[in-house]
Design goal:
Helices cover about 30% and strands about 20% of the residues. It is of the alpha/beta class and about 260 residues long.
Length: about 260
């Protein structure tokens, strides 16, 4: 047998150093591998995913960093429609209006949005693991399993690395805007299903925020963000918290549907 050769990695400098396009993340958390060849030609400075919004990733970074002024200054809605709805039926209707020709649309949401069940969307990980996603992505409008039906939402796990022309992002109580504290990253604990608990672990906080980073960048032509109105009788669906989140998104440049 011949000598085993080491791998040589070819990479953009930004994935090693971090930057806006990678949301500050690096390919290696510790010391980088020794055999790395870098080239600026490998960095895709213009998004190939979004036909209308070269600055979508930058806008999403601003939103998730709590920088509403920075997000608004990008004026992203001039080229890439981002609409806000407070009603799921209205969201479905608006998405249906975009289904012209081969345009595909569907709902997405966070795997941690456990209380989307309150608006009729099933968040169970068991349900999502068993769902026939090939039909969700490929089925025709007449196929009740397809994304066109807007009955089942894809989480960050099912949609990662893929995209639709239009998405309806169903916002959950796992990421709520607070005017004093900024983003509240939360989870429903198995032992306390009646209230949200703040996520304290730094890695889990990063995972939760990055789930929304994935979801906010899955559309190629435009998106509708659905923020529920909430329920005064349900402490896990606070109308005040959802209203605060909706208003923050509007300040970031999202256009209200009504």
């Amino acid at each position: 047998m011949g000598a085993v050769k080491d791998w040589v990695i070819y990479a953009s400098p930004e994935v090693l150093e971090g930057g806006p396009s990678t949301a500050g993340h690096r390919l290696f958390n510790g010391p980088a591998q020794k055999d790395i060849e870098t080239s600026t030609a490998l960095h895709l400075r213009t998004s190939n995913r979004s036909l209308r919004a070269e600055k979508l990733a930058t806008w999403v970074n601003c939103v998730l960093d709590g920088d509403s002024d920075g997000a608004a200054s990008l004026r992203i809605a001039e080229r890439f429609p981002i609409l806000l709805s407070r009603d799921l039926s209205e969201t479905r209707l608006k998405l249906g209006e975009q289904g012209i020709g081969v345009n595909r649309y569907g709902l997405v949401g966070s795997s941690g949005a456990a209380r989307l069940r309150a608006v009729g969307l099933e968040p169970s990980s068991t349900f999502h693991a068993e769902y026939p996603w090939e039909h969700w992505y490929l089925g025709e409008k007449t196929d009740v399993r397809s994304s066109f039906r807007c009955e089942v939402f894809a989480t960050e796990f099912e949609i990662q690395g893929l995209e639709l022309d239009w998405i309806g992002l169903c916002w959950g109580g796992d990421l709520i805007w607070d005017e004093e504290r900024g983003w509240l990253l939360r989870a429903l604990r198995p032992s306390a299903q009646s209230k949200w608990t703040l996520i304290k672990n730094q890695d889990k906080q990063t995972y939760r925020k990055n789930a929304y980073r994935v979801l906010l960048t899955r559309a190629r032509m435009g998106m509708v963000i659905f923020v529920p109105k909430g329920d005064v009788d349900d402490p896990t669906n606070s109308p005040e918290e959802f209203e605060s989140t909706a208003q923050y998104l509007i300040r970031c440049g999202v256009t209200p549907l009504s």
